[in-house]
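Give me the 3D structure for Chitobiase/beta-hexosaminidase C-terminal domain-containing protein.
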Amino acid sequence: MSLTRRTARAVIVAAVATGLAAAGLSAQANDPTPDAAPVRQDLALPDEQVVRVHVPGSEALAAMEDAGYDFAGQFERVPDGVLVDALLTAEQLAGLDAFGATLSVPAPGVGPTRAGRGLPTTADADADAVVVGRVDWFTTKGQGFLSVEAKSDALDAATLTLSWDGGSVDVPAYNDSGEYLYHRVLTRVDGPRPDEITVTSSLGGSSTAPVTDWLHGAEADVDRPGYEYGFIDGYLNPTEVYERIDQLHAEHPDVTEIVELPNQTNGYQRRAQAVFGTANDSRVGVDSLAWGHEGGNEVSVELAAPGVANSALDVSVDGDAVTVHLGTDAAGAVSSTAAQVVAALNADAGSLVRAYTYRGNAGAGVVAAAPPTLLSDFLSAPDSVERGPFPTRALRIGEHRDGSRPGVLIIAQDHAREWVTPLVALEAAERLLANRDNDPATRRILRNVDILIVPSNNPDGAHYSFFDRAGQRRNMTNHCPLTGSADALARGNWGVDLNRNYRVGSAVDGYSGASFSCTSDTFMGPDKLSEPETQNIVWLADTFDNLKFFMTVHSYGGQLFWQPGAYIADGRVTTPRPPLRDETYYWQMAEEILSNVKGLRDTVVQPGNVGGSSDVLYSSAGNVREDLYFNYGIYAFGWEVGGVQWNPDTGDWDSGGGFQPPWPEAHQQYQEYASGVIEMFEIAADYAADNRPATTRLVQERQPDGTVHVTFQPSEPASVHYTTDGSTPTTDSPVYEAAAMREPGEVIVVDETTTFRWISVDVKGQVENHKRFTVRVR
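Predicted structure for Chitobiase/beta-hexosaminidase C-terminal domain-containing protein (778 residues):
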């Protein structure tokens, strides 16, 4: 079974050729007719290109975003900043120096890694303490890799070296916003898998830790006999995507329903516009009052020079034709200024158009005559794409859609140019419904999970990306004031970044990674939840209180992340970190999800690209994940699909192909990441079946100095609440916490005989029976 591409894709073919099409737009002029007939303006946007840029840190990143720099994807933390793909104009390229940024190329074979905890052993009492975090081994395309993270209590003053039987490599220190994070390295290993590694410091510290395997080789869903997958054979615009989910519901009405979301989008629509003049002080912007498709595109404006002396400025309107008869001086030269023309248009043609001077300019310059010019909304989608508000909806799948089963919400394409992402969501739905009769695992999901899929949460921006400007990220809503950049020359810079428009850790609250500028690609909007698209997602969380899991699908970069997602740059103060229970559960789910991704073509999402997004990526103020986690207790993932692939022929990592990779690559990407979504449904089914609380044991390690190091080890992710004063523990008792950022449980140092009493609470809220143990100090 497969989908057929239903529309001509000339625009798409051009985009796919480079992975991200040139963002310039040249509107089609009408065929020339008589001289007096109005013509449509050709207001081309500046050409843009994708380049790799080194940015010296998060502050510079935020400043560049505020200045209109568009960071496309493939973020990679490096010791002295961030490497990132950027979609830049020639003018922006020339301005990199002002931010301390440079054109760059990523260092081959280097990437971030995940942290854990190891107990340090030091060379002498004066040495620094080195803690080895999690040590991950993985293979891909026949090549082995070690991913190691460590910390020194001397911070970046220590130079760390990783060694194993057969090799050694330096471990760079990573800082962000002036704060030390960790030392970490990703290195290839050409020999066998080592059993342990050692990290040594130039200051004398040393620590040894065992090697663990990242991802596992269990059977992936695509390997099951008779399992159907790979249903989509070309890129689909949002109209086609939603037609398909409607069709799926019609084909499977017994296990699906369409959930109409309460807020339609603001629409694939614009006012028709024109800009007259070239010098800023003499430019006049004109917008139709009607949307372009509702008559605005039929309005024409002429700036006519009378050719006689001492002519008064006036405006005449004949149907949709507006003529400005410019004023002249005693010599017959035009004397009307931009401000005067604007006032005359608004006074005499105010029922058709709204005029304004250029971006707040006083408009004292004399305007130039212009022939009759049709205003235009500059939108090029075919008639199959309706203008006007779009009725976004969710496909709900499951045998029990009554709130009695744990819910999973999947949304895709918050960012318009990410064309692979709706296919990931759609493919997951296709698989569930195609395999319902022939696959036991699928039947288990349908019986035990309540699934909601919003395949394109930004249909307006995505239609614009498909047919007008491939690089569009945001929705299409123009929040720029007339004194700003509301004119047609800025039309490629409008819209709200939907993933900066939520309520937790927002730019309004001082968090980094979103902008107040209406032309920035990370514009948060005029207020929290200002956009119908974000209001719809919050409505889903408010309406379906059985939602327990969430995934927002983005591209590209190959990351899987959760909270914390934002920080205040001064001091790098993050949103609250999840408790150890939730952090452990996230890691457990991530390994299952990513192991299923690996099953299709041996793609490995590197462990250093997994974790809290502010730790492995950057700060994104006002993101959806934090809103759903902190306000609703939903385990909320963000996903950047389309990560790098190891190339055995070149011995290096190849790019994930951009936002719109050539179709053969896109075809692989949507399938492998849909496998991860299916695994998320399996996790929800496991959650539904779990009816036993965790069991927790206390582990003690006696130290040479006579103290005892105590840790707790629950059988599954759980919060451990304990007391040491003889009282009975409750959920209000102290909780066993993580040792530090990206580390497992703390070490409790006991220096006198102590009785611990504890309970644990698992992710379903199931409470373990009260336990006790006395730790005796000799």
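The longest helix spans residues 663-689. Let me know if you want a second pass.
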